[in-house]
Predict the structure.
Amino acid sequence: MGVRDFRTRLSKRAAKARIPLTAELIDKLTAYYELLARWNKKINLTALEDPDAAIDRLLLEPVAAARHVAVGATRLMDVGSGGGSPAIPLKLAANGLGLTMVEVKARKSAFLREAVRHLGLSDTTVETSRFEELLSRPELHERFDVLSLRAVRLEPRMLNTIQAFVRPGGQIMLFQGPTRADIGEIVVHPLEWTATHTLAEPLQSRLTVLTKRARLSR
């Protein structure tokens, strides 16, 4: 698919999902998708067989999620970044967010670093590590305003681990499909459910937002 054809398809999918895109954002999302498609021929980053589904899931869902980033948020951590979605489109749409992507596989991390370079992303780093291993770095504790993740098995222990990176009052954004079970039973202190939003209607995808309770002042 040529660049012009892709831009047209992206614009049509965005209009169908009622997600507004600026010309500048379309350019950046197109550049990211082209790079992803090239690398995907060499290493398995993500599924791209259905272009419309790929556009919706990899590009439009994160753009829609950017609407729900709290005002004043400045730093985002993405866990299990893989091929860079939702992290990179979310950063592109929520202009000004610093970004740390966490990916354990070295080849995928290499792609992420190339994407950072290719797209000229400022204030963006890649950690080739399991997120549990980053707990040994005190400078990352409660550093982030937002933490995002997709395609990660959710359980109380895992949520309790990742919340350590989120500042009090910060958000955890869980990208979920239409069949994902309710997470109410696994949300543990100091996290609380805030909202669940529909992102891209064609895929019936959802975003569940958790908030880390702020500490009570004495």
